[in-house]
Amino acid sequence: MDQNRRDFLKKAVIMTSAGILAGGASDAFASNDKKSVSISRGGVNKKMTLRYKPFDAKFIHPFGVSGNMRTGTPLILVEIEYDGVIGYGEAAMPPYLGETQASVIEFLKKVNLDQFSSPFELDDILTYVDSITAYNFAAKASIDIALHDLVGKLLGARWCDIWGYTASKAPTTSYTIGIDTPEVVRQKTIEAAPYSIIKVKLGSEDDKKLVEAIRSVEPTKPLCVDANQGWKDKSYALDMIHWCKENGFIFVEQPIGKYNLDDMAWITERSPLPTVADESIQRLSDVKKMQGVFTGINIKLMKCTGLREGHKMLELARALGMKVMLGCMSGETSVAISAAAQLSPAVDWADLDGNLLINNDPFEGMKIVDGKITLADLPGVGAVKRK
Ligand code: MG
Predict the structure, then answer these.
(1) 199 CA to middle of ligand 1, Å?
(2) Domains and CATH numbers, the chain
């Protein structure tokens, strides 16, 4: 955090605790002077306004994972406006998660933000949003991300700074190559040159051919594997993990079926590589159950309802001595990816390439520089709408 931001945050906390509340956050932002931002905490005629619209993210290449092939991802883009400042968020719905644009819109219609006096009641607001239904995780994440963006903008700070993470510690991100023909895999491996880790989607009969195609282009680059539950039993999975270890892989994600935790614990106990839970884990309440079953967990905002819970999962996993990976859904825009990137300085591995896979990103924010996640110096979740 630079000194200006440190000074600002200190000042913001003092102003808040002393009850010195001035209006005009939007004016202050127009001046782009973070030190002069004043915090507006409600008052007459200040309401949060929620807006949303469907958007279809289009992939640069059709994208295959164990079981299907897709050309894009349906999204809902969300805005929450308060006192002239807009927070942006999104819900991303790859088909296997069971949410749709229609189900997200139906959920968002139920959300009534008028009962809250300001976005600074973030914890109460998100507890309420979570209580509306049992599921709708991506829909909940869209509100969570927009609200974090809004509150960060009103404070003039990025969330990584609010949480006290050192942005420069953000890790490299892996670049994902889906299941495809050896020729396409070779081409994608060439395109992945700027990234220092390649994530390979395995779980088909052609696993070894696919890895050989990558190795013909990149003989030594570190690889990680996401089997997406595709390895059919524990012995086969363990054999494949040993083979992966010999071929320069550094960890393995979700080797077998998500409910098969006994066999998974058996694999982890014997595995020469760290194992990471993805489909087996959804939310904060699942983290403890993964201890001893996997080496680490993969946190994704669309699964866990957003940044508030993702941050808690990260801290709990750390306290339990587990590794943490940060993931995303293929086809998320730079809003959700930049939001997730705010957590990245505190994780072991990141797979935040969802926005790199699409050719119609309406936002820009987090960038990959020399393979490394580089957060934008922007308040909130660190993304802006493209002109
Ligand atoms: Mg995965």
Answers:
(1) 10
(2) 3-36 (no CATH), 49-159 (3.30.390.10), 161-385 (3.20.20.120)
Q: What is the pLDDT of residue 42?
A: 55
User: Cα angle at 198 between 62 and 192, to 5 degrees?
Assistant: 65
Residues of the chain with pLDDT under 50: 1-3, 6-37
How many angstroms is it from 201 CA to the middle of ligand 1?
A: 8
Question: Distance of alpha carbon 169 from its chain centroid, rounded?
Answer: 17
Distance 226 CA to ligand 1 centre (A): 5
CA of 179 to the centre of ligand 1 (A): 13
User: What pLDDT is stored for residue 33 in this prediction?
Assistant: 41
Whole-number Å distance, alpha carbon 310 to ligand 1 midpoint, is: 16
H or E stretch at 276:
strand 275-277
Q: How far is the CA of 75 from the centre of ligand 1 (A)?
A: 19
Q: Crossing angle of helices 307-319/137-155, nearest 10°? A: 90
Q: Is 122 exposed, middle or buried (0-12, 13-18, 19+ CB in 10 A)?
A: middle
Contacts 24+ apart (CB under 8 A), 202-207: 202/66, 202/226, 202/227, 202/230, 202/231, 202/240, 203/65, 203/66, 203/179, 203/227, 203/228, 203/229, 203/230, 203/231, 204/66, 204/179, 204/230, 206/179, 207/240
Model pLDDT for residues 82-113, shown as the tens digit of each residue: 999 999 999 999 988 899 999 999 999 999 99
